[in-house]
Amino acid sequence: MASYLVGIDIGGTFTDCVVICERGQVVTAKAPSTPGDYSRGVLDAITAAGRQLGHTLPEICRATRLLSHATTIGTNAVIEKRGARVGIITTKGHNDVIHIMRGSRGLSGRDLNQVVHFPESSKPDPLVPKDLIEGISERIDCFGNVVVPLNEEEARAAVRRLLERGVEAIAVSFLWSFKAPAHEQRMKAILAEMAPDVFVSCSSDLAPRWGEYERTTAAVLNAYMGPLTSGYLRHLERQFRQLGYQPPLQIAQCGGGTVSIDRAAQAPLLTLDSGPVAGVTGSRFLGELIGYRNVITTDMGGTSFDVGLIIDGESASSSISSINQYDYFMPKVDISVIGSGGGSLVDVDVRHGLMRVGPKSAGAVPGPICYGKGGTQVTVTDAALVLGYIDPATFAGSPQGLDREQAEAGIRAIATSLGMTVEQCAAGIVKIAEFQMADLIRKVTVQRGLDPRDYVVFAFGGAGPLHAGVFAFEAGAKKALVPQRKMASTWCAFGAAAADILHVYERVDIMTEPFDLARINRNLAALLAQAQARIADDGETGAEIRYTFSIDLRHQGQINEVAVVLPGAALMEEHLPALKRDFYERYTQLYGAGTTYSKAVLEAVTCRLRVVMATPKPALVAASTMTDVVPQAAVLGARPVYWESVGHRTDTPVFAAELLVAGNTIEGPAVLEAVDTTIVVHPGRTARVDAFGNVEISLSQGS
Amino acid sequence: MTQPIRQPRVSELSPEIFDGIREGYVPGRQLRIAPGLRLHREFSTDLDPITYEVIRHNLWNINEEHGATIQRISGSPVAIYAFDLNPTILTEDGEFVFFGPYMQYMSGVADTQVKWILEYRSDNPGIRDGDMFIANDPWVGAAHQMDVMLICPVFWQGELFCWVTNCLHQHDIGGITPGSFCPAARNVYDEGLVLPPIRIVEGNEIRRDIEELYLRASREPNIVALDLRAQIAGNSMARDRILALIRRYGPATIKGVMQRILANGERAFLEKMRRLPDGEWRERTYVECCRPGDRKVYPVYLTLRKQGDHLTFENEGTAPQDGAMNATYSGWRGSLIIAINQILCWDQYFAVGGALRHISFDPTPGTFTCARHPASVSTAPVQAMEISLYPTYNLLAKMVYADPELRKDIMCIGGTSQFPTVFFQGLDQRGRQYGMGLIDPLGGAIGAFSCADGISTGGQSRTPISRMPNIEHTEQLYPMLILSRREIPDSGGAGKFRGGMSAEVAFIPHNTGEIIHNTVSSGSAVPTSVGLMGGYAGMTNVITFAKDTQVLQRFTEGLLAEGPAEIGGELAAVALRQEMFRQGPGDVFTVAWSAGAGFGDPLDRAPERVAADVRAHTVTQEAAAGIYGVVIDAGTGTADHEATQALRRELRLQRLQGAAAPAGVLEGARIQDVTEKLQLRAAPDGAHYCCSDCRTDLGSVAGDYKQACHVTDLPLSAANPLIGDPRRFVDADPVFRTFVCPGCGTMIDTEMCLSDDPPIRDIRLLV
Questions:
Q1: A325 touches chain B (CB under 8 A)
Q2: Is the minimum CB–CB distance between B244 and chain A shorter than 8 Å?
Q3: Of B54, B223, B475, the CB nearest to A432
Q4: Which residues pair with B572 in a beta bridge?
């Protein structure tokens, strides 16, 4: 019997499943997500995929070599405020850290309009009320020296009070714990003894970084999501065991790989945003396979447009992230988001002749007008439908078909008020959205010192391939690629299956030149020991393991840090010249020529160890022959589509994307209909199917 | 108080004298530009909405990328944590297209810089493609000398198309105090280098001679040099991207979008003006202490007059310039523009240029908010400019209240309405010299809104996206151990909607022998977060110094100390401008900053909200009863409605003690709402004010409603229990003055004023 790789991604509405056979055959399926017990949706989706392969659920489970799972359960729990009742134990005098939020309103990712309009920009509700925050006597200073030892009497009294108040999880975060974790570790031991059933998260275990607000938030979010997520994961594991799945279940994490279920249950914060991150991971895998090491990933669904980056084969990541206005530390693949999706609403100011698109969205309910579920305000999807990009009968997002007439009526109302034709107006709506997406791509690349011309844009998500032909090229990229035709909306599930096991260990120890190498090497050795203990716990000793040590450096007195990779597990005097050379080179590359000055003193900030363990990989098989002959079955006919550059509707050929074969080249204008998306090939663009079945869009010769 | 002799306003003096030399620069209606400089004037007016929206979004992004470029290259904590920078795009003749969301003080000055350069540099040395001008002269346009601007003309085919500029706070540009912030300066000659606009970049090359002149003044030339490169790179990037847009869409289209941004802003502003009544609103506040040893209080007046669609701001009555507490014309105007932008133009995305076409700024030169050269101005942002900005929110609130929609944009004065500045220096934990200001008060608080509570530690509205450092950031850099940083219950001004809480930070020296402090604090005696429309003031700034405390002793017993009871020690007075103050190992220094002001009568606050505040430790049980009149059931923590009703009735009666009998009740039709508790209704002899609750007649609209109110002067602590005795710092006698409806005891207005100052006539409607 064949052996499979299975990727799962639980989203807010659908649970996606991708099954990959050894010979490269891919099957995808979707099932409605099942809040309450998400595992039902997971099993439904696998069952549906299995049916396509002629297997029952237990058969599929027994024949699977690796099951990997991304989820937004944690994200939803935070956004919907369904997390645990959390208590905090912290350093006395510093109880208000998560209330003060560093004196800011947590503006990350919010529309700037709201930033100056204070009535709209309040802080989010605190994750923990002040009554459940206990400050106790203990103090460590900036050198890691104990000023006041942990006062165990106060510690125990604090635990008792929290338990009396019915907390379900406890976050422990002391000042400078990342530097000297002993007090937090002792506190953990006390909690294990006094409250063995309470979920505990320690800031120094989870996010040992410099800055108590973001570190405490990480510990609190972890505790908040803890009982729910770990409960779910244990339940899921049991079910798969019963169904005959033997190998360790892998959980996708926000750093771009997977972790064991034990680790994920301890640190559920790792699963936050794991779905979108898996999309980047999948792109990285595919890019590696087909030779693209610089990739901009774009995921456009109904409500948002998510952008990630792969730079020289590595996913771009950062150590700080935010959810619901809370900033927290966690090494995480960077995803930048704007509220620009198919459901983005069009706002018109008739008196001033102004039109804006997004960031508000119609969501899944009521959705765009054309869904016929009560939406009355025009969305980007309505405009795409009216232009002829989408076939109302076969649109994947709405099985019962789309109502083109209603969408057109909505757009006509706007068009008339602005003195435009329906087509001009619809094209304008789409263009405004596409240019916003291009602006975000620019921001993500150029503001990091990267040139979008060096990048290929991967476009996935149900709506991405509709618009990539514009936003990718407007941003300056040379090529757009729709990966694997039939996985546009299940790409994140594929990414989960394609991920390696990844652990990231960090230790912040700020020191200035000349560096104390013995101290650095002690730190590196401690990271290695920590990693090996974890690997042994997870029983992953057999896997191929790659260790990468790095250190973050910066100019003293400045903020910008650059990670420099070390040659091995130890740093020697003779490595230093090359290390500094790397730093200056990379700094100049990121921040511009003339931005470093070699007279400046350097500071070392964070030592890091990334451990990657290879897992079985999807075997995508290249076609043996390439042909420009389009199979007759792939030609579906033609329909009138409005092209802005042409200025009127033209009869445009329509193809079945799945039936096109490697080597097929389609000149725009054309529309390629795939299982769960539509690839729009604008006039002046050429689409080509590559050997692995990806559709590449590039500028046509001469345009 | 002796009335100063009335000095003429800007509009009453000859325009020629406002050339930025002795008087601050005030551009005339017509800019005098050398004829050799060709301005690009052509713009298209028939843009379709899509092209407009796409290019508008692009220009906005260019400005944002401009700011990000400076942050990226500079890499300094000033740029990245405090966001003390701001980029702008202006038209060829210096009207704002966009300014950035960073430090707002820096924006309102960009247009005067550009206009001055057009007037005084266009003939000699000329303005050419590839030039950039460096400038920090507060009399031309700068908040204070450390805010160094770099101004770049953008040329298209030989014509001056537009301007891009940026401003970045510098670590040090000279002067008698490291950091160039000089609280003891006698005048501008004690302060850092002052540069009127000087061409530092020519043909895209830095003029080395001029750069060396600039760097020579600084104690930190390397950092300043790197920041200059960041500023150049920011301007170059913005210029190049605008040129790329011009190449793609054509110059007339791009200029058309810029003009339309202005026109849209103007139109939106005019529409708002049309919905509002004409009138004149006045506000009086006070600052304290203009030089070490000073115990005086200085009045600050702000007048807003609306006539049709035109607004005029004046500062008549404000104290003369003195000591080291002044701001220039551009500093004052720039401060006002912040509030104008946030209350009237927030929906225009930082495009305030259109509105400014209808706003006059007409201060009186020689006052401390419009100081003449050579006054000291390096501390302007923390004192004179804060007190110019924050009362503006109250004036605008009273103007827009008449319209139910615009009323929702009202915001009361926020926290840190005077910045309690503490500079510390000495040897750090690694044995090196250091000197730094405590920036925690950036955490501020946001004042109450007309329909919601303010935001506790929600920042300072003048720098809406900055953050304060983590405790661990501060302790890593400086030799201190921070005992606590926490929000202060009851600090937020009481009201129907409560002001946000502020916070305090307490620390001891650690791994060093001592810390030496220099302080500049106003807003410590007379509250500056004044309540609005019956709302109460937020807490004042409070700096406390406890000498020889128990803290270190407790450490050895395994205990941390928090709060005065545990800390012990002897309280020593810290003067408002204290020089070279020594803090030893067991001495605890605590800085609490002022909180957000309240909106509306606290006795109108929903009892459930007060109970929730008590449960959340935002308001104490005592204040709940004493100020809000809400009785909390000890068992359930919820409000006891019956007891609350009785208590509130009693408190209203108390307010009315000694009140004269009220006039009759107005039965005529309502004409308009004036404030939360003040209405205009028809009476036989024309419009009259009345109480919104009981309709008690408060006199003709031609008069001052306050004269019909029952006026009582109460101690400051009656407004907020955390306000201490003002006589510790000043000789004057400030009071909490309440204006109560004689009919029902509702609070119509409050003032924080000196006891011998007459009530200020805050509203004069032109009906």
A1: no
A2: no
A3: B54
A4: B545
Chain B neighbors of A350, CB-CB under 8 A: none
| Residues from chain B contacting residue A95 (CB–CB below 8 Å) | 486
Q: Which residues of A touch B54 (CB under 8 A)?
A: 431-432, 435
Q: How far is B440 from chain A (nearest CA, A)?
A: 8
**Beta bridge partners of residue A501, listed in sequence order:** A258, A613
Residues A298 and A283: their CA atoms lie apart, in Å, by 10
| Sign of the CA dihedral with B139 first, then B141, B146, and B152 last | negative
d(CA A315, CA A87): 35
Domains and CATH numbers, chain A: 82-226 (3.40.50), 501-613 (3.30.1490)
Look at A148 and B452 and tell me if their CB atoms are within 8 Å: no
Residue B226 in contact with partner chain A when CB distance is under 8 A: yes
Question: A420 to chain B: nearest residue by CA?
Answer: B48
Contact residues, chain B, for A354 at CB < 8 Å? 49, 52-53, 264
Give the pLDDT confidence of A539-571 residue by residue, as tens digits.
776 668 999 999 999 888 777 888 999 999 999
pLDDT tier, A354 (very low <50, low <70, confident <90, very high otherwise): confident
pLDDT for res A109: 64
Please give the Cα distance from A28 to A5 (Å, whole number): 12
Question: CB of B44 within 8 A of CB of A524?
Answer: no
Q: Locate B697 and state its tokens.
A: 């007649």
Contacts of B552-557 with CB under 8 Å at 24 or more apart are B552/B508, B552/B585, B552/B586, B555/A139, B555/A147, B555/A148
Percent over 90 (pLDDT), chain B: 86
Interface test with B, best of A112, A130, A142 (most B CBs within 10 A): A142
Per-residue pLDDT at B1: 47
Choose between A302 and A92: higher pLDDT. A92
Report residues of chain B scoring pLDDT below 50. 1
Distance (Å, whole) CA B281 – CA A610: 63
Cα angle vertex B25, ends B178, B281, to 5°? 95
Q: Which amino acid is at B106?
A: M
Whether this model's ipTM surpasses 0.85 comes out as yes
In tens, the pLDDT along B611-640 reads: 999 999 999 999 999 999 999 998 999 999
Residue with the larger pLDDT of the pair A488 and B598: B598
State what percent of residues in chain A have pLDDT above 70: 96
pTM reported for the whole predicted model = 0.94
Task: Report chain B residues whose CB lies below 8 A from the CB of A597.
Answer: 222, 226
Å between B648 CA and nearest CA of chain A: 28
- Chain A residues touching residue B52 (CB < 8 angstroms): 353-354
Q: Which residues have a Cβ under 8 Å from the Cβ of A1 and sit 6 or more positions away?
A: A59, A63
Cis peptide before A514 (omega within 30 of 0): yes
Q: Which of B 465-484 lie inside 8 A of A, CB atoms? A: 465-473, 475-476, 481-484
Query: How far, in Å, CA of B297 to CA of B323, rounded?
Result: 13
The C-alpha R_g of chain A, in whole angstroms, comes to 26
Strand (E) or helix (H) holding B342: helix B329-344
Q: Coil, helix or strand for A469?
A: helix
- Tens-digit pLDDT profile for residues A219-229: 999 999 999 99
B65 touches chain A (CB under 8 A): yes
- Sequence-separated (6 or more) residues with CB below 8 Å from residue A73: A10, A38, A225, A228, A229, A232, A271
Report the mean per-residue pLDDT for chain A: 92
The predicted pLDDT at position A700 comes to 81
Least confident interval from A449-453, A645-649, B277-281: A449-453
Contact present, B355 and B339 (Cβ < 8 Å): no
